[in-house]
Write a structure and sequence with these properties.
4-stranded antiparallel sheet; Neuraminidase; alpha+beta; elongated; 19 helices; 707 residues; ABC transporter involved in vitamin B12 uptake, BtuC; 43% helix
C-alpha cells in the first residue's frame, strides 16, 4: 500500500469527522447558543461587578426571575404558534393595578382574587386571539394597537383609583408569602414559575394541544389540512399568554404594592428579546420552554447588572435593543443556513478499499460471467405493486410482500392473480419471516420489528435497542431495520442498515463507507433487544443456517458475506466466506439443495470503487455539488447468485437487458420456483429453477411439516 493511502486510511479512521455533523444534527444544538451566551454573561459580570454572585443579589434576581418565567411560558406558546404578543407589558400593568385593587385594597381572598386577575389578563388575550386567530388580522399590528388601548385603560385607572390603591393594605399571610415568602431559600414566585414552566414543557412536548401549537407554527395550511383547528389553537395561545401575564402581575403587586405609569413599560421588548435569544423562532414551530427559560435568565442578568453598573434606563434599553437585534440576526441566519451547514458537515466519508473487481465478462470463465437466464422471468402483480422488497410464502402457498404505502399484501395461490391487503402497518415492510406457529415477522423501515398473527393482529416487538456508550447519535432508536431471520429457540436476529440515515436517504450511507449498521437480537423470553454485532457496512440478508447455531449476513457496501456463530462451541466467532462480490449483496435465503441464494441489488463500478479510496473527493462533492448529482453506487441492475456453505459460487443468474427484473433485493425459493423482489420495482419476478425440488418450501425446511 502506498504511503499516501496509508496516511489517508489512518487519518480517516482515527479523526472522527462525523461527530461534528452528529452534534449539529441534535435538537439541543439550538440550546447551545443561549447556554454559551449565558456563560459569557456570568463570566463578564462576575469579573466587572464584585458581589455579583452574592446570596442577596441572587435572591433578588430569583424573585424577579420567577415573574419573568411565568410570562415567558405564555409568550413561548404564542411564538411557537407563529404569533407575537406586544400587549404583554400593558397587560402586566393592567393586571398589576387590578390585583392591587381587588386583593390588596378590597382584601378579596386569594383563592378568588388571583383567578379573577388571571381572567382579566385572559380577556385581553381573548380579544387578541379573536382578532388574530378568527378574523385573520396581523399579529404585530393587532397587538401593537391593543398595547396602546390597554395602556390607555391603565392610565385612566390610575387617575380614578390611584389614591385608593396606594392606601390599601392586605394583612393576609398568604399575600405576604407571595411577596417575600421562601421555601428552603427559594422565593415563592420562582417555585410557581418553575411549576408553570414544567407544566408548559409537558403540554408542549407530550400533549395534543402542544403538538397542535407546533404544527400550526410550522405550517398553518398543512395543520389545517391535517384536521387541526388552527383558528382555535391560535386564539388559545393568546388567552394563555394573557392569563399567565396576569398571574405574574399578582406576584409583582404583592412584592412592591405600587402602581405607576412606568409599570410594565418595555416588558414586551424584554420578553421578546428573551424568547428570541433563547432560540424561539420568530417564524414559529421551533423552540422549547427550556430555551425560553435560558433566554429569560440571560436578559434578567443583563438588566440587573447594567442597573448595578449605574447605567441610565435609556442606556439599558439601548443595550437590550442591541441584544435583541443580535438575537434576531442569529435566529434568521441560523434558520436559513442550518440545513446548508448540516449538509456540508453531516456526510462524513472515510477511506475504504475494496479488492479488485471480479471479471464478469461473458465467456470469461469467471464464476460471475454474464448470461441472460432471467430475461424470460414471469411477472406477478405487474403495475399493481410499489416496492416489494421481500417475498415469502405461508403453508397454504399464498405469497406475501411489502409495499411502499405501508401494506403487507397477500397474493392467493395457485396463480397469484388475486391479491388483498393482508394488514396495514404504516412504514415500508422490508424483510419477512414466518415462525413455528405461523406468525409473520417483518422489519419495517423507520418503525422497527413487528409480528403479525394469522388473525392479522399486529404487535410491535421492538423499536429500540441498547444505546452505545460513546455514541453522540441516540442509536437506541431503530432507524432502518431491514432484514431478519428466526433461530430455532425463537430469537429473532435482524439487521439495521444504518444508524445515521433514514429510510428515504439510505443510499447516502454508501458515500461514507463506514460501519454505520448493526445486527440486533430480539429475545422472546424477556422481550428485550440488544446489539450483537455493531459497526457493519449496511448489513442485510440475515439467514440462519440449518445447524441452528450460526447465521449468514451480507454487508451491502462491503460486498462480502460473513458467517457469525451465535450458539454452540464456536459462539462469537465471525468469518468472511465471500470477500469480493462483483455487486452489492442484499437478502440471503436457503435453497432446496442445502445451499444459499443471494440477491445482488446493484453492481460495482470502477469509478465508485476508486472514489471509496478518496474520502476528500467525496467530501468536496457533498459540499459543492447538488445532491441529485452526487456519485452513487449503481443500482440499475442486479443478479442472483447461489453459493455453498464454504462460499463457493455455484450458479449466477443475470438479466442483461434489465427489463424483466431491473433491481433485485430479495429471492425466495418455493416449490421449484425462484421469486424475486425489488425495493424499486413494480412487480414480483418468478423464475423456474431447473431440476429443483418441486415440493420444497422454506417453512418446512425451518420448522418441519405441519399436520
Amino acid at each position: 500500500m502506498a504511503a499516501s493511502d496509508t496516511w489517508t486510511r489512518w487519518r480517516y479512521r482515527y479523526v472522527p469527522d462525523h461527530i461534528i455533523g452528529e452534534v449539529l444534527a441534535k435538537n439541543w444544538i439550538d440550546t447551545l447558543i443561549p447556554v454559551v451566551f449565558l456563560a459569557g454573561v456570568l463570566t463578564f459580570f462576575s469579573i466587572e461587578l464584585p458581589g455579583f454572585l452574592s446570596g442577596s443579589n441572587l435572591t433578588d434576581i430569583a424573585q424577579i426571575y420567577g415573574e419573568y418565567l411565568i410570562i415567558i411560558v405564555g409568550i413561548t406558546f404564542v411564538m411557537m404558534a407563529g404569533g407575537i404578543d406586544l400587549t404583554v407589558g400593558s397587560t402586566f400593568a393592567f393586571c398589576n393595578l387590578a390585583a392591587l385593587l381587588v386583593i390588596n385594597t378590597m382584601e378579596v381572598n386569594l383563592a378568588l382574587g388571583i383567578p379573577a386577575v388571571m381572567l382579566m389578563g385572559g380577556a385581553i388575550g381573548l380579544v387578541n386571539g379573536l382578532l388574530i386567530g378568527y378574523l385573520g388580522m396581523r399579529a404585530f399590528l393587532t397587538t401593537l394597537v391593543m398595547l396602546i388601548i390597554v395602556r390607555a385603560l391603565v392610565d385612566q385607572g390610575l387617575l380614578d383609583y390611584g389614591q385608593t390603591v396606594m392606601s390599601g393594605f392586605n394583612p393576609s399571610a398568604a399575600w405576604e408569602f407571595m411577596a417575600i415568602g421562601h421555601v428552603y431559600g427559594i422565593p415563592a414566585s420562582l417555585i410557581v414559575g418553575g411549576v408553570v414552566a414544567l407544566v408548559g414543557h409537558i403540554v408542549l412536548t407530550r400533549m395534543r394541544f402542544g403538538w397542535h401549537v407546533m404544527a400550526v407554527g410550522g405550517s398553518r395550511r398543512s395543520a389545517y389540512n391535517a384536521g387541526i383547528h388552527v383558528k382555535r389553537t391560535v386564539c388559545a395561545t393568546y388567552v394563555l399568554s394573557g392569563m399567565l401575564t396576569g398571574l405574574a402581575a399578582t406576584f409583582y403587586a404583592a412584592r412592591l404594592s405600587s402602581a405607576g405609569t412606568d409599570v410594565g413599560k418595555g416588558l414586551e421588548v424584554t420578553m421578546l428579546t428573551a424568547a428570541v435569544l433563547g432560540g424561539i423562532s420568530l417564524g414559529g414551530g421551533r423552540g422549547s420552554i427550556v430555551k425560553a427559560m435560558l433566554g429569560a435568565i440571560i436578559v434578567l442578568l443583563v438588566q440587573n447588572s447594567l442597573i448595578r453598573m449605574g447605567l441610565s434606563s435609556g442606556a439599558s434599553s439601548l443595550v437590550l435593543g442591541a441584544i435583541l437585534l443580535l438575537a434576531v440576526a442569529i435566529d434568521v441566519r441560523w434558520v436559513k443556513n442550518r440545513h446548508k451547514v448540516l449538509a456540508r458537515t453531516y456526510v462524513s466519508p472515510t477511506y475504504f478499499k475494496l479488492p479488485p473487481l471480479p471479471d464478469t465478462a461473458e465467456g470469461s470463465g469467471s464464476d460471475y460471467a454474464l448470461n441472460d437466464r432471467l430475461r424470460g422471468v414471469e411477472a406477478i402483480g405487474l403495475g399493481e405493486l410499489d416496492g416489494p422488497e421481500d417475498v415469502i410464502f405461508d403453508d397454504e402457498d399464498d405469497l406475501y410482500c411489502g409495499g411502499r404505502h405501508g401494506d403487507i399484501i397477500r397474493f392467493s395461490a395457485p396463480d397469484y392473480a388475486r391479491w388483498e391487503v393482508f394488514v396495514h402497518i404504516g412504514g415500508h415492510p422490508l424483510g419477512m419471516a414466518f415462525d413455528r406457529e405461523g406468525n409473520l415477522y417483518s422489519c419495517v423501515g423507520g418503525m422497527g420489528l413487528f409480528r403479525i398473527a394469522p388473525d392479522r393482529t399486529v404487535t410491535k416487538l421492538s423499536d429500540e435497542t441498547n444505546r452505545s456508550l460513546l455514541s453522540v447519535v441516540d442509536d437506541s432508536r431503530l432507524r432502518l431495520a431491514d432484514d431478519l431471520d428466526i433461530a430455532p429457540d425463537g430469537r429473532v436476529f435482524f439487521s439495521e442498515a444504518t444508524i445515521r440515515y433514514e429510510m428515504y436517504d439510505w443510499m447516502v450511507d454508501a458515500l461514507e463507507a463506514r460501519g454505520n449498521g448493526r445486527i440486533i437480537c430480539w429475545d422472546p423470553k424477556d422481550n428485550s433487544s440488544r446489539t450483537v454485532l455493531p459497526s457493519l457496512q449496511l448489513p442485510n440478508g440475515i439467514c440462519v443456517e440449518p445447524n441452528g447455531q450460526s447465521l449468514l449476513f451480507a454487508e451491502t457496501w462491503g460486498c462480502r458475506i460473513t458467517r457469525w456463530w451465535f450458539d454452540g462451541p464456536n459462539k462469537g466467532r465471525k468469518e468472511v466466506i465471500i470477500d469480493n462480490l462483483p455487486g452489492y449483496p442484499d437478502n440471503i435465503n436457503r435453497a432446496s439443495d442445502g445451499n444459499f441464494w443471494c440477491a445482488l441489488c446493484g453492481m460495482r463500478s470502477p469509478v465508485f470503487d476508486l472514489a471509496l479510496t478518496m474520502p476528500s473527493f467525496r467530501r468536496r462533492m457533498v459540499q459543492k455539488v447538488a445532491r441529485d448529482e452526487w456519485l452513487y453506487p449503481n443500482m440499475n441492475t442486479g443478479c442472483v447468485i447461489k453459493f455453498d456453505a464454504d462460499g463457493n459460487i455455484l450458479d449466477v443468474l443475470w438479466d442483461l437487458g434489465g427489463e424483466a427484473h431491473p433491481m433485485i433485493t430479495s429471492i425466495r425459493e418455493h416449490k421449484g420456483w425462484l421469486y424475486l423482489g425489488g425495493i424499486y420495482n413494480n412487480r414480483i419476478g418468478r423464475y423456474r429453477i431447473p431440476d429443483a425440488d418441486p415440493q420444497w418450501t422454506s417453512n418446512a425446511d425451518y420448522w418441519g411439516k405441519r399436520s
